[in-house]
């Protein structure tokens, strides 16, 4: 079975992409509105792309009514945001934060999520997440005037203490249980893991 992308509607393309490109990591982005309200919203069109400088990118589309999302407006205004990653205990709250919240209602406050100050930017992070990265806006790309690709440069990292071996610079995978996005209302756990030995490459004769 095959499709030309141009033969599909945007919604159909979305279904094809999200049905197979998975699991996807989820950027749980905190930003600050003009009145100081802290916004937290999840985005699963997201990943990290570079380490020098540390760059990540997520896509923010418009709301169904055509209005810009609070996350985009806040980042456009301040140039700052935090990418938080959710683990299993926070998965339900992360999902609930994807609901429709007016700008005057902050998701962390409404859902009872604790905030903690960032170190180098004004936007707070979600205190209980296993990992968070303070970001400065690096570049914003407009796509068809209905979606923005927001690229951030990570300038400061926060890691839950018990998850990280500081000497080996390695995560304790037995303690880290991130949640991934599948499609629609479906998410996945990441505890069923496979380990392969180092790839050997082409063997000489």
From TrEMBL:
**Record's superkingdom?**
Bacteria
Q: Which InterPro entries match?
A: Flavin_Rdtase-like_dom (IPR002563), Split_barrel_FMN-bd (IPR012349)
Query: What is the protein name for this chain?
Result: Flavin reductase (DIM6/NTAB) family NADH-FMN oxidoreductase RutF
Record carries keyword Protein biosynthesis:
no
Required cofactor names: FMN
Mention any Pfam family matching this sequence. Answer: Flavin_Reduct
Which SMART domains does UniProt cross-reference here? Flavin_Reduct
Coiled-coil portions: none
Source organism = Bradyrhizobium japonicum
Alphabetically list the UniProt keywords.
Flavoprotein, FMN
Report the sequence similarity comment from the record.
Answer: Belongs to the flavoredoxin family.
Q: List, for all copies, the residue spans of the domain called Flavin reductase like.
A: 19-178
């Amino acid at each position: 079975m095959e499709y030309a992308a141009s033969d599909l509607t945007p919604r159909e393309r979305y279904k094809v992409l999200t049905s197979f490109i998975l699991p996807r990591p989820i950027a749980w982005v905190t930003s600050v509105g003009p009145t100081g309200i802290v916004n937290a919203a999840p985005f699963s069109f997201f990943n990290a792309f570079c380490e020098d400088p540390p760059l990540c990118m997520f896509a923010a589309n418009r709301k169904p009514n055509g209005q810009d999302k609070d996350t985009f407006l806040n980042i456009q205004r301040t140039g700052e945001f935090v990418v938080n990653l959710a683990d299993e205990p926070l998965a339900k709250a992360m999902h609930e934060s994807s609901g429709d919240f007016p700008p005057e209602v902050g998701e962390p406050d409404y859902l009872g999520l604790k905030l903690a100050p960032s170190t180098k930017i004004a936007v707070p992070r979600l205190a209980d997440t296993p990992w968070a990265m303070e970001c400065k806006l690096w570049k914003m790309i407009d796509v068809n005037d209905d979606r923005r690709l927001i690229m951030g440069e990570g300038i400061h990292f926060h890691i839950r203490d018990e998850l990280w071996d500081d000497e080996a610079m390695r995560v304790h995978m037995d303690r880290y249980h991130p949640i991934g996005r599948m499609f629609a209302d479906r998410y996945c756990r990441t505890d069923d893991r496979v380990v392969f030995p180092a790839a050997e490459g082409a063997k000489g004769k």
